[in-house]
């Protein structure tokens, strides 16, 4: 899954782009990434199915999940607080927002809520299609809470989500990233 549609929302927040400019930039980055990194997706050693999230957004199933999540966000205080905790953590890493006008900050909060709710709706769709495992760079506590059943009114497919967070560390000197190796048992 290439999350081009949610990345477009992220670009609106992180770079202040309009929706149209963000979608164009996201699509360009996606196409360039696929062109420059085609080998893993075309080798016979492993069968990959590359799906862009923009091909899911707008489908009847996605819209149903998104509407259910918006309803939960509006009516479940605990879920709303969890979404805002994610948003606050995300926005705290965006230095330009700290000094922005209240209107711009509110726009960023709204877009960031849209970002995580859209990402959850996409995940619900993907799980419903039979792909319950999500490998994610980093870790989002909200996904772990959902998997633990903390939000019983969430779409059922999200409860079946198996979320695997991948952590990376920087190597000294060259700035290249590499996965953390598992701790060896004694």
Question: Can you characterise this structure?
Answer:
This protein has 186 residues and is mainly α. It is built from 9 helices and 4 strands. The strands form 2 sheets. The chain has a two-stranded parallel sheet. Strands 3-4 form a two-stranded antiparallel sheet. A hairpin with a 6-residue loop joins strand 3 and strand 4. Helix 1 packs antiparallel against helix 7 (102-128). The mean pLDDT is 85.
Question: What is the H/E string?
Answer: HHHHHHHEHHEEE
Q: Rounded to an integer, what's the Rg over CA atoms?
A: 18 Å
Largest sheet: 2 strands, parallel
The number of E-state strands comes to 4
**In whole angstroms, how far apart are the ends?**
37 Å
Number of helices: 9
List the uncertain runs. Answer: none
What is the share of helical residues?
A: 55-70%
- Tell me, rounded to a whole number, the average pLDDT: 85
How is the largest sheet built, in terms of strand order?
Answer: 1-2
SS-derived structural category: mainly alpha
Shape: globular
* Percent strand: 5-15%
Topology:
Layout (H helix, E strand, L loop, with lengths): L3 H12 L3 H18 L2 H4 L17 H16 L1 H16 L2 H4 L3 H27 L4 E5 L3 H7 L8 H4 L2 E5 L1 E3 L6 E3 L7
Parallel strand pairs: 1-2
Antiparallel strand pairs: 3-4
